[in-house]
Specification:
Blueprint: H1 2-12, H2 16-29, E1 34-40, E2 46-51, H3 78-82, H4 91-98, E3 100-106, E4 113-119, E5 122-124, E6 135-137, E7 142-148, H5 155-160, H6 164-181, E8 186-191, E9 199-200, H7 207-215, H8 217-221, E10 223-230, E11 235-242, E12 252-257, E13 260-261, H9 265-278, E14 286-293, E15 298-299, E16 310-311, H10 314-332
Parallel strand pairs: 1-8, 12-14
Antiparallel strand pairs: 1-2, 2-7, 3-4, 3-7, 4-5, 4-6, 8-9, 10-11, 11-14, 12-13, 15-16
This protein binds adenosine-5'-diphosphate (ADP) and magnesium ion.
Adenosine-5'-diphosphate binds next to helix 2 and helix 4.
């Protein structure tokens, strides 16, 4: 049974960056205003996230890594909406099956923090033969989650992740994109031991300011704001897109649907072809899109590791996005 769980977990959490995506979303769900990511060897040796959110109640610590355990599902009717965010209650469980996981957490009204270790969904001793109970310790309000030796028990997956620089780049990409989309939250991302972080955004910043931090002031200055509400389609979007030719080696898409970082090939294709016809010199677009769709209209029947999503009225919504960008480009470039 453990082997089956481990294989299933390895399919949900297939590389450090997608574990990080889940951990960042948990920190944001916990109301964090500051999130710090620390990485060793591309997240394979260590992937740690510290937040200043509301923390986890001590009595919940034995449960948080159990499969389908979530504190976010309050009433049954929530299910249809909640499911659209993916596999609820599976992230920590899955990570605990494929790494050495520890959680240190302190709620504001607690006198001290507690540190717990997990293995295969359950509390585990810090050292073989030891006690599994969470241990009181010093700590700040909030939560530190550390996953060590990712895929130590799935050699085939570990072997597939040999390039730690690649994995770190993916981690940086996830952290910087969430930083742009959640500009009220301070994000830091650093390699363990590095004096200077690779990403360091301030609290109460703005999306455009953080785009400048991550992609450079030149790119930020070339962007124009878009915003549109498709009332008949229960959808709306806003964001920033490139408006002039600039030197980009590849197109950049930061697409959030209902605050989740996703891929959507039809949007990407349609926008790319718009740019190559309207702005041939800028045929590598930069697009940050914050798309909101009625949760029931988003398809949840996609494989959990895939970032690709589907939604209802796709053609019309993609059409509205292209129209909106087209209008903006033709009004700013004449
Ligand atoms: P889900 O997010 O779907 O509820 P997870 O497996 O990601 O499932 O997390 C399980 C539970 O652990 C959450 O419901 C939440 O109660 C708790 N939790 C996880 N991370 C944090 C965090 N950073 N701060 C506070 N609580 C957390
Ligand atoms: Mg979660």
């Amino acid at each position: 049974e453990t082997v089956i769980n481990r294989i299933a977990a390895g399919e949900i959490i297939n590389r450090p960056s997608n574990a990080l995506k889940e951990l960042i979303e948990n920190s944001l769900d916990a109301g964090a205003t500051s999130i710090t990511v620390t990485v060793k060897d591309g997240g394979i040796k260590l992937l740690q996230i510290q937040d200043n959110g509301h923390g986890i109640r001590t009595e919940d610590l034995p449960l948080v890594c159990e499969r389908f355990t979530t504190s976010k599902l309050k009433i049954y009717e929530d299910l249809s909406t909640i499911q659209t965010y993916g596999f609820r209650g599976e992230a920590l469980a899955s990570i605990s099956h494929v790494s050495h996981l520890s959680i240190t957490t302190k709620q504001a009204d607690s006198e001290c923090a507690y540190k717990a270790h997990y293995s295969d969904g359950k509390l585990a001793p810090a050292k073989p033969g030891g006690n599994s109970d969470p241990e009181p310790c010093a700590g700040n309000n909030g939560t530190i989650i550390a996953a060590e030796d990712l895929f130590y028990n799935i050699p085939s997956r570990k072997n597939a992740l040999k390039n730690t620089r690649d994995e770190y780049n993916r981690i940086y990409e996830v952290a910087s994109r969430y930083a742009i989309h959640n500009a009220s939250v301070a994000f830091t991302c650093r390699k363990l031991g590095a004096t200077k972080p690779d990403l360091c955004t301030q609290q109460n910043s703005s999306a455009i300011n953080n785009i400048g931090q991550v992609f450079g002031a030149k790119i930020a200055a070339s962007l124009v704001e878009i915003s549109y509400e498709c009332k008949d389609l229960d959808a709306s979007f806003s964001g920033y897109v490139s408006s002039a030719s600039h030197e980009m080696h590849k197109s950049v898409f930061l697409l959030f649907i209902n605050h989740r970082l996703v891929d959507h090939t039809p949007i990407k294709r349609a926008v790319e072809s718009l740019y190559s016809s309207v702005l041939p010199k800028a045929s590598r677009p930069f697009v940050y899109l914050d798309l909101r769709i009625k949760p029931e209209n988003v398809d949840v029947n996609v494989h959990p590791t895939k970032r690709e999503v589907r939604f209802l009225n796709e053609d019309s919504i993609v059409g509205a996005i292209v129209d909106c960008i087209h209008k903006k480009l033709t009004s700013t470039n004449n």
